[in-house]
User: Fold this.
Amino acid sequence: MFKQINRFGLLLVAAASLYSCTSKDGYETDKSGLLYKFYEDKEGTPAKEGDIITLSMIYKTSKDSVLFDTKKIGKPLEFILPPSSFVGSLEYGLAKLSAGDSASFQVSADSLFEKTFHAKRPDFIEENSKITFNVRLIKVQTKEQFEKSQVEKKEAQIAIDDKLITDYLATNGVKATKTDLGIYYSVVNPGKGANPNTGDTVSVHYTGKFLDGKIFDSSANAGKPLEFPVGYGFVIKGWDEGLKLVKTGEKGILYIPSGLAYGPAGAGGVIPADAVLIFEVELVKVKPAKKK
Assistant:
């Protein structure tokens, strides 16, 4: 369920020391050797190994060159807190934080790249220098809390998507059939051929649109229909299941909820998060799967 973080995108966590001393630049040093400085220190239980944390982060070299910034990706990071990768690592700092806290941590660049990123330290980062992490911890959840919240979000999004589709159909006077999965399908020009089954190879002309009518993709760009086996995950689930409703030679429209399309992640900067998609499709040909 949890995605691994890109090695330059994020890090880990472990138990923190309570013993520290203060340096003249405002940083304190705990017994692990980690330099840290709090800006906000809220009441709450610190994150621990195995928790799922949500945070915003920016980290820089000793010369203030930005290596990573969550603002650039447009959303906070969410990941499981694994064990510490080395003594004095960022993980020691993250384990000091509870929800609402913000702080800076200075970590050995050499150890960070060798022990955490498992990569050679880039030449532009000086040997024996520090990497500074500025972190705001937004949320801390146990695995059980996270899984429950994900189910609740999914169920809420299903209801939102269904209303978006039904409102669109009503506004545009479209009659469509709803499947058990939540896909809606309307026939434009009926076909007389067979419906494809799992394993059959189909050739499909299509145009993909958002609810506002903006086109994001079309087989016309390739100058030929898209060909793929149905039901094996080569396309979004809304297609794998929706095309089974379409007869060979038929033209129709699939209205696909976001959970059966690209979900909360979106796709490639083209499909936004939680986008309902409309596909005008024409099932040109069906090649039955070979019988074993």
